[in-house]
Design brief:
Oligomer: single chain
Helix content: over 70%
Largest sheet: none
CATH topology: Rhopdopsin 7-helix transmembrane proteins
Strand content: under 5%
Distance between the termini: 72 Å
Number of domains: 1
CATH class: Mainly Alpha
Structural class: mainly alpha
Length: 335
């Protein structure tokens, strides 16, 4: 919390001033995100989903993964205002929430992070398959849609530890059993390993193979069956941006897993304040992925503008035809 409750209001110690400064910085960053990044990210994520779903015939394998990441970004957009306007991110919280709301937000945040990381990972692997075996259907749109469904299911199952913690808050008759499951360090260790270590290793392997195959000479007949060249730049940019924005958050999970809860034992107040500031800042960077990814897709995907124009023309034609039908119906009832 950024009310500096560990210090008296009249305390003029360096630790209290540091806490006040960190709270002010975090409040400014949070408000900037809510006023600029949140509405832009919400609009572009919704636009990315709408444009691709309205042009299902022309969707490619990367489009399916980016739609999946955009849906996860929309979930993050729903979590962000509740989290950033709460007592954990601003000195002037709009509302307070209980443990049940906190666990619900944590589950949604974890599920979205897993979907984003694994969509990025599988996009890299499927892109390599498409480059290496262009005439196969292993990375087809049909298969990719089913894979994305499994990603969401796996993300929900991985967040089961948080769900157990949520259930235990409602079971007052089995405090001893529930206390054994309320191990946040173990939950963070699971999220760190499954949500970051495994995707990072897979992405590193896929990118290495992609860069190696680009150096090799390929037959001209294989080049005609491959994806748009802009997808390669979009893939590398998306991998770099996603891991750059999510790595600080997972590093804080690693610190919490190794060092334990900093509030559970006596530590220097300055270190404790710095830790919570860096943790909140890392979560803010993670929220920013829902803003950066759709903008990058909009700028680097050469086909997005054409799909958007087709969707707008289709909507305009529907609106024109409905007006014509209403006018024809009105003319029929006239004597």
């Amino acid at each position: 919390m950024w009310r500096c409750v560990a210090y008296n209001e009249s305390d003029s110690s360096p630790e209290n001033r540091l806490c006040q400064d960190f709270g002010l910085i975090l409040s400014v960053f949070s408000l900037f995100y809510l006023m600029v990044c949140f509405p832009v990210g919400l609009c572009y994520n919704a636009l990315l989903v709408a444009v691709n779903l309205s042009n299902k015939v022309s969707m490619t394998m990367p489009d399916v993964y980016f739609v999946n990441m955009a849906i996860a970004g929309l979930v993050l957009n729903l979590v962000a205002p509740v989290e950033l306007l709460g007592p954990g991110f601003t000195r002037w919280p709009v509302w307070e929430y209980n443990n049940e709301v906190y666990i619900t937000l944590l589950i949604l945040f974890n599920v979205s992070s897993l979907v984003i990381m694994y969509s990025t990972t599988l996009l890299s692997l499927d892109y390599y398959i498409e480059r290496a075996l262009p005439r196969t259907y292993m990375s087809s749109v049909y298969n990719t849609k089913h894979v994305c469904g499994f990603i969401w299911g796996g993300a929900v199952l991985t967040s089961f530890s948080s769900l157990l913690f949520y259930v235990c808050n409602h079971v007052s008759t089995k405090i001893v059993e529930c206390s054994k499951m309320q191990n946040k360090e173990a939950a963070d260790a699971i999220m760190m390993f499954i949500g970051y270590v495994v995707p990072a290793a897979a992405v590193l392997y896929a990118v290495t193979l992609i860069l190696r195959i680009r150096k090799e000479s390929t037959p001209p007949e294989q080049d005609s069956a491959r994806l748009d060249p802009s997808i390669h730049r979009l893939l590398l940019a998306s991998v770099f941006v996603q891991f750059a924005l999510w790595t600080p958050y997972y590093l804080t999970l690693l610190v919490h897993t190794v060092a334990g809860d900093p509030g559970g034992y006596s530590v220097n107040n300055k270190r404790l304040t710095t830790y919570f500031f860096l943790r909140c800042l890392s979560e803010l960077l993670a929220f920013s992925s829902s803003f950066a990814m759709p903008l990058m897709y909009r700028q680097m995907n050469a086909n997005f503008s054409h799909k958007l124009q087709r969707m707008l023309k289709r909507l305009h034609c529907r609106d024109t035809s409905s007006r014509t039908l209403r006018r024809a119906g009105g003319a029929d009832v006239e004597p």
